[in-house]
């Protein structure tokens, strides 16, 4: 069964020291181009072949094996299939037993009908086209505080030039606003020099991986299951993913004993573990860490000399009254740890929260506890890409400094925000209940984030059928679900899971009025699937 | 003298096979953290030290040596100095012998006062805040064709959701528009499936380097001088820069004999040269390639099995009547070469041209002549970062499909465009003449792009003074220029140059009315410098 753990765990410790060799055996299962000719002969051989495509200089066996090895399930095979089905539906309605494809594979709220926060979009539009700020018609179209905010932001941008490259870390004034927002959130000082604005959180994660990983001997502790950006970026940068398993039976709890065990095991294999990734609220698991637990994690990183990479992009997405988001920066400062004690990077994004502005590609990382020399290196890496997009930078400042009580937009902003968050809580509960009503399915609560990660007990017959189809059993299930219902979810094997268990990730993002139909379609499909494959 | 060639040429072939070793000797000159302790002991030693910063886990000798080795001169030391001077000026006016810092280090037109193209910004604002499209006030504020275009674009975006992640390559409809623009430009078919929209051209270049470079044995032919994005990304991805020298005495001409010579030399050292970078119009050199020359380049790549990486981001920036931009795609198609003959990637950006929208981070690459397997890998790399920002995508579509004769905005658009381009031509000529009037300075014409790259004959006494200050002579000159005048230019050593020659890169972007003052300041400084160091 172990072979189906697949996906992200292919980079497990024991194999990772032999990247080149590993790559060849891996790609041989993928590629029809691979020859058994020795490396040095391959290019000249391929240029001697006479099919048109083989005269091209680039082949799978001559490109970067890390790229070939990299996997990214949330946009993988199943999404390609979904796109094909969508094209078929467009070409011929009625060609499938559903009217539309429902993309529950990725946290992309506005693609499923969520409306943007009006105030944010007003400010962005005004900053894009500032010459209308002085016109009288503008006051009829835009709120007074959006006009005022746009002026403030323009004054923070040198020459009011929203079309110019900014400082490599992002416009100083916008970073000041963000730092003030972090201070207001945490109750501890934040410094705009610690902020690096990025095109969403993903490039920030890549930057840290590129910095920390020298070779396959460098390990990064990652939760399993995890958002596959981490496994993908570790693979792309040639490092080793050191897995720690979240405890599904304890609501996807994070146990320090598990961290210790995996760290020791990695060390015993010669892996130098550099950093710990924590995703809080969890993706794909939805748990929100308790304060006590966070303190233990900080202590662990401090003691073991690990960089704490804190993915906090779902900080606004908490749905249960007994849990609250606390940033790791706040936790560490509350323990008395400062700049000299803990290397901590917190990732934030405009793509998540109640706003869900994925297409704007805004985000930042707050980098604390690194020496000046290392910060210079991070700055240099940011410089090579010049800067992140200014609209995304502006939006990141707005997210960390939304309208306040008394502002003209406050009420409408607040209503939009609460409407989205309370609806997300309702949707999360409805889908969780629906999953738990299915035969052989158990699903932890989504305390936060945007996902449920139900576990499916698949019948042996289904597992055999999957093997015959050369698919992981959960991928087999998800493909059948898509073909039958148009619902796109991602197999657990894309995130990692305890060997022999099967899951899928489903976003809670379809609009509320669509949930009942989704539940019906899911339920019908599942019954049929289980009936077909019941042992 | 050879040691001053510095910068990008540190990755020259003969050294690159010993990256790890090389890094240590390199970083030892930079870093006060480096110990001579063997690798495996170093981390435990540093954790035993008791200064606060040394208890932090990340040190210069434990991070990715490729990051340490990477250099990016256009935002390097000289810009850091400029930022400090600017802060000092703000804190105390009159603290320096100039009123403002003039950033001529980077092609960032709007930072120096260039105004955005109105039509483009109208459409962006409307797409950011589409609910105003139906309001009557909007017609008073926006041109009719910008409203119409915004509707068209929204209809191209699934669910009109400008806040959703798009397809990993970018929104299909926008790619269709871009493909149509390429067809109109070249007179040959273009396919939207070949377009990958990116956050500016830089991430696209990184993506191709990451794809093509497996190890230090993989070489990329780059012009010298070159835009240091290429040297930086080759270093970051662990490859080898194989230099070919442009001929300064022939207007920075590109000689095929030089390409052949360098390719053979690299091969003889065991380097597998994978690709040829051509920047046309040239950066930092400003030359525009002749059609004949381009055909020779295509033939060379075809014959030698090289991927042609064509940096065509300055395609709109041509200032001389006897030269015209031709894309390499058009050239290769006109020679009868199609998908099966030549692997060609063309990079385009919204940051350059007449629009200069650097802050929007929009761009694309057109990828042709790769097998389906390789395209899948490129798609996967794009997927890991989800998508580029949608405003940048929209702007890329506008740049490739601006207003046409008969559209309401055509006249104003056309006037703005011509105003900028003709002024750039005037500025280029004025600065070129000014440089050529300086003692010991010769400067080729900027036929295109945004830069001049004058050569300075520095007196021996200046070279000695630079050596004493541990600076490359051209860096020494540029730092003195900055300190005396507030003008920021980039030393030639950041771009590469023939050993023993010295240059700097200066953008042609200051507004026309500032040029006379700049010329005066430059001239006065240069006279003083030469008088001080005359042999």
Automatic annotation (TrEMBL), chains A, B:
Pathway in which this enzyme or protein is active:
Photosynthesis; C4 acid pathway
Where on the tree of life does the source sit, at the highest rank?
Eukaryota
Q: Does the keyword Transferase apply?
A: yes
Q: Which GO terms describe its molecular function?
A: transaminase activity
User: What range(s) does the Aminotransferase class I/classII large domain occupy?
Assistant: 158-515
InterPro entries annotated for this entry?
ALAT1/2-like (IPR045088), Aminotransferase_I/II_large (IPR004839), PyrdxlP-dep_Trfase (IPR015424), PyrdxlP-dep_Trfase_major (IPR015421), PyrdxlP-dep_Trfase_small (IPR015422)
Enumerate the UniProt keywords alphabetically: Aminotransferase, Pyridoxal phosphate, Transferase
Q: Is-annotated flag, keyword Transferase?
A: yes
The cofactors it requires, by name, are: pyridoxal 5'-phosphate
Q: How does it assemble?
A: Homodimer.
The record's family statement is: Belongs to the class-I pyridoxal-phosphate-dependent aminotransferase family. Alanine aminotransferase subfamily.
UniProt protein name: Alanine aminotransferase 2
Source organism of this protein record = Ziziphus jujuba
């Amino acid at each position: 069964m172990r072979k189906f753990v697949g996906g992200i765990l292919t980079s497990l410790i024991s194999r990772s020291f032999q990247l080149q060799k590993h790559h060849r055996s891996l790609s041989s299962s993928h590629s029809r181009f691979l020859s058994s000719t020795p490396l040095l002969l391959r290019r000249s051989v391929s240029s001697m072949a006479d099919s048109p495509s083989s005269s091209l200089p680039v082949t799978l066996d001559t490109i970067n094996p890390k790229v070939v090895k990299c996997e990214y399930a949330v946009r993988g095979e199943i999404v390609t299939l979904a796109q094909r089905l969508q094209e078929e539906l467009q070409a011929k309605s009625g060609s499938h037993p559903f009217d539309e494809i429902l993309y529950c594979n990725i946290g992309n709220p506005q693609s499923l009908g969520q409306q943007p926060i009006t105030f944010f979009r007003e400010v962005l539009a005004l900053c894009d086209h500032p010459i209308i700020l002085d016109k009288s018609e503008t006051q009829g179209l835009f709120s007074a505080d959006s006009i005022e905010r746009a002026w403030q932001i323009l004054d923070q941008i040198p020459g009011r030039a929203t079309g110019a490259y900014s400082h490599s870390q992002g416009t100083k004034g916008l970073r000041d606003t963000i730092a003030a927002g972090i201070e207001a959130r945490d109750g501890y000082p934040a410094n705009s020099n610690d902020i690096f604005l990025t095109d969403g959180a993903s490039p920030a994660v890549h930057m840290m991986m590129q910095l920390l990983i020298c070779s396959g001997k460098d390990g990064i502790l990652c939760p399993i299951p995890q958002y596959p950006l981490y496994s993908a970026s570790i693979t792309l940068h040639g490092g080793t993913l050191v897995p720690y398993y979240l405890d599904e039976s304890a609501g996807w709890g994070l146990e320090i004993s598990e961290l210790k065990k995996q760290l020791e095991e990695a060390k015993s294999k010669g892996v130098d573990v550099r950093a710990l990734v924590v995703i809080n609220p969890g993706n794909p698991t939805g748990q929100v860490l308790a304060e006590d637990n966070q303190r233990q994690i900080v202590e662990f990183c401090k003691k073991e000399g690990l960089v704490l990479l804190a993915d906090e992009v779902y900080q606004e997405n908490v749905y249960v009254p007994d849990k609250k988001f606390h940033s790791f920066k706040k936790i560490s400062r509350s323990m008395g740890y400062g700049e000299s004690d803990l290397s901590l990077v917190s990732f934030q994004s405009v793509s998540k929260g109640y706003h869900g502005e994925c297409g704007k590609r805004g985000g930042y990382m707050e980098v604390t506890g690194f020496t000046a020399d290392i910060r210079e290196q991070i700055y240099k890496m940011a410089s090579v890409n010049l800067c992140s997009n200014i609209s995304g930078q502006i939006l990141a400042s707005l997210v960390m400094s939304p309208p306040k009580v008394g502002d003209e937009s406050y009420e409408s902003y607040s209503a939009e925000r609460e409407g989205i968050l309370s609806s997300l809580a309702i949707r999360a509960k409805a889908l969780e209940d629906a999953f738990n009503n299915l035969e052989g399915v158990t699903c932890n609560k989504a305390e936060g984030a945007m996902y449920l990660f139900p576990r499916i007990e698949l019948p042996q017959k289904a597992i055999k059928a999957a093997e015959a189809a050369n698919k992981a059993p959960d991928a087999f299930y998800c493909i059948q679900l898509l073909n039958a219902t148009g619902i796109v979810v991602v197999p657990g094997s894309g995130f990692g899971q305890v060997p022999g268990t099967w899951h899928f990730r489903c976003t809670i993002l379809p609009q509320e009025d669509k949930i009942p139909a989704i539940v019906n379609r899911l339920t019908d499909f599942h019954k049929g699937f289980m009936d077909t494959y019941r042992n």
